[in-house]
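Table S2 (continued). Query chain:
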Amino acid sequence: MKHVKILGTGCRNCQATLNLVEEVARAQGVEIRLEKVDQIQDIMRYPIMATPGVVIDEVVVHSGGVPDRKTVEGWFAPSA
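Corresponding output:
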């Protein structure tokens, strides 16, 4: 199981990113633990300059803007 964190204070892009990650994981049959991190002090622990940020198993894989669907699919591909 992958632990996915969505970093953001609650903007529309953060929610869209969360929904996209959840949708792609479900479509690919990948079990994830999805966590929304919305406290600034918790977000600042990661090296990102813009939100939303996406962290998978404590590795930042994206920051700034909503990732495209193909990118998210790549995060959950069998070899990823």
